[in-house]
Write a structure and sequence with these properties.
flat; 8 helices; 239 residues; 64% helix
Length: 239
């Protein structure tokens, strides 16, 4: 069993990522069977004359197919068990958080929810439910894990709009991709833009960043820049 997260937001993040993965037995079986057949055809076809690199690649493709077939019989079940476990953990954490905040009084009370607002435990003013800093007294309302969520609904809100989005990679990908279009140095900037774009997109998909457009644009610029240098080199040095 994977290590359990200690924050309610992290629990909700893992649940959402597992659901978005859409792990299914049929998908693994289809990919596995196609890979095995294609790999064996390539390996056998190119090994009739002599053993070469295509034989190795075909064997590797067939091996990957076997691994997919094996995964088809245990991966979906593992993911289902993991989601059920995380759901139970989230409910337990939410109950503990709500009970601990509801059982205290005065400044010891963490959060009092009222629709989409809550009461600041320090100055008793009504603030937004997803707030991490009180706009009246300026006190930090985050938990020890660095998250403001005390209920699963708040945790989902924080996933949709993270308090401190890690948008640096997506922004850097766009900037480097634009520079790469005019920089007279082969491949360096476009490849860096590709790497930064992939990282930025991963941050978005894992609910840590919000600038998907910049990450995608930087990735596309990296692809365009890389292909352009291939064409230039082929035209001037190969033809």
């Amino acid at each position: 069993m994977a290590k359990d997260p200690t924050s309610l937001v992290e629990v909700e993040r893992q649940i959402q990522l597992l659901r978005d993965a859409k792990v299914s037995k049929n998908k693994f079986l289809t990919v596995g069977i196609v890979s095995i057949v294609a790999g064996l055809l390539v390996a056998i076809g190119f090994s009739l004359d002599s053993f070469n690199i295509f034989t190795v690649l075909g064997a590797l493709l067939a091996g990957a197919g076997v691994l997919n077939v094996i995964a088809a019989f245990w991966k979906p079940a593992y993911v289902a068990r993991r989601i059920a476990h995380l759901e139970s953990l989230a409910e337990s954490m939410e109950e503990q958080s709500v009970s601990s905040s509801g059982g205290a009084s005065g400044t010891e009370r963490d959060v009092t929810l009222d629709g989409e607002t809550r009461r600041c435990p320090y100055c008793a003013e009504d603030i937004q439910a997803a707030a991490i800093v009180c706009r009246y007294c300026g006190r930090d309302l985050r938990s020890k894990q660095g998250w403001s969520a005390t209920t699963r609904e708040q945790a989902r809100l924080e996933l949709q709009a993270p308090s401190n989005p890690e948008n640096g990679f997506g922004t850097a990908a766009l900037v480097v991709g634009l520079v790469g279009l005019f920089l007279p140095v082969p491949f360096v900037a476009p490849v860096i833009a590709l790497i930064l774009g992939f990282i930025g997109d991963y941050k978005v998909r894992t609910f840590r960043a919000t600038n998907k457009g910049m990450a995608v644009a930087g990735t596309l610029l990296g692809v365009v820049g890389t292909l352009s240098w291939f064409i230039i080199i082929f035209y001037f040095f190969v033809l």
